[in-house]
């Protein structure tokens, strides 16, 4: 489901590596969703959400530090997008996970895939253009 494409590459090694890791977490989620042998996925769904949250906080911190270092003019609006994403993941409804594990996981996957690809292709590519304009 989560396929890395050349168009996602920023040309910034550490950022690209971290983005690829986010795609791996997305794929772990998708693999869990497709696994019909696991009947109770609650603990695994919660673990994946926690892993996603932890890694996003780590990645966003790295990316924000990079943006500050290059003097990116739209830093604050970029950070707001990161903060909003973190808030959304932190608001995971534990009861909804328990009542409809596959449905909730699919909802999270759809949100994540839409957000990550849109964020990389639009917001992140904007700072790539900005950085290139400095060269």
UniProtKB/TrEMBL annotation:
InterPro entries: Haemerythrin_Fe_BS, Hemerythrin, Hemerythrin-like, Hemerythrin-like_sf, Hemerythrin_metal-bd. GO terms for molecular function: metal ion binding. This is Hemerythrin family protein. Pfam families: Hemerythrin. Keywords: Iron, Metal-binding. Belongs to the hemerythrin family. Residues 10-128 form the Hemerythrin-like domain. The keyword Iron applies.
